[in-house]
Amino acid sequence: MDTYENCDFSKRNNSENRNSPTDEETEDDYENTQQWRPKPGQCTASSVRFDYKIIILVLGLLLMLGALTSLCAIGILYHRKVVSSEKLSEKYKNATATLMVLEDKANETEQLYEMLKMKYQQVHERLFACNGWKSLGLKCYYFSTEKLNWIRSRDYCVGKGGHLVIITSQTEQNFVSSQIGETHWIGLNDLETEGKWMWVNNQPLKETDVKFWFSTPEGPNEPDNWKKEDHSGEDCAALGHEIGDINKWFDASCRKQKRFICEK
């Protein structure tokens, strides 16, 4: 850029319409031209002001760029913080849900423990109460070594504080069968009405619907009320038969002498 571009010359050559100058005029013009040169101080101040504007503009742009960069950095940090906060919130929710599940399981375990503790106490008390009788669950069983007829067997059990055994489940059937090696009286009879089998607690057999009568495909099946040995028939039930098969029920004459099972 020409340094003198903005300089204001105070005098101009007005000899555009004049004829060729003389030597004296030429010399005067040269002296005047020397006076038309711009003063160095005036042009330098203008250039400095222009340079200051450029510097200020550049600094402004740099400040704006720095501000934008700062805003971007703040935005990124804020976004990361929001994402991190959401992740922590999700982890907190999951941890809370897991804790609630564990708390429920702990409560269930505690309830189960209390239930088992109560059952243990009941079984322990029952074992103590059995006083030498064999136990299954909360029941006590006495397996006799002597043989009596059904009526005397029933009375004997009552005298011991119990009754002839009442079998109401497969578990109980398996247990009492495993404890004997021969036939035993149980607390089932149809003395009052033929074919209407009743337990000694006056509960009909049909109500429990638990039956383990002996049966074969070719027959005959129990109960058969066989009267060849006793004309009154077979009105009392026994676990097992004289010839074996101690896992099934047989009807027999109540006058027969058998071992028996008491329960309390």
From TrEMBL:
Gene3D superfamilies: Mannose-Binding Protein A, subunit A (3.10.100.10). SMART domains: CLECT. CDD domains: CLECT_DC-SIGN_like. GO terms for molecular function: carbohydrate binding. Residues 136-263 form the C-type lectin domain. The chain crosses the membrane at residues 54-78. Residues 85-126 form a coiled coil. Keywords: Coiled coil, Disulfide bond, Lectin, Membrane, Transmembrane, Transmembrane helix. Residues 1-40 are annotated as: Disordered. Residues 22-31 have a biased composition (Acidic residues). InterPro entries: C-type_lectin-like, C-type_lectin-like/link_sf, C-type_lectin/snaclec_domain, C-type_lectin_CS, CD209-like_CTLD, CTDL_fold. It comes from the Eukaryota. This is C-type lectin domain family 6 member A. The gene is CLEC6A.
